[in-house]
Amino acid sequence: MTEITYVMCPVNSHNEWDQLEEVIVGAGIPPELPVLDYTFKLFFHDNIYGKCENISYTGPDDSPKYYIDKQHIEEHKEDLDNFASVLSDLGITVKRPKVPKKIIKTHTPHWESSSHVCLNVRDLTIVIGNDIIETPSTCRWRYFETDYMKHLFLNYFERGSKWTKAPAPLMLDSSFDLSYVDKTPGALEYYEDLIDAHPNEMDTGFEIMFDAANCMRLGKHIIMNAVTRNQKLGAEWLRRHLGNEYTVWEVEMCDSHIDSSFVPLRPGLILLDRPELFERLPKPLQKWDIIYNPKSSVRLPACENENWLPLASDAIDINVLVVNPNLVICNERNIFDFQKLLSPYKIECIPVRIRHDQRFAGGHHCTTLDIRRRSILENYFE
Question: Which of 39, 113, 162, 338 has the fewest CB atoms within 10 Å around its CB?
Answer without folding.
Answer: 162
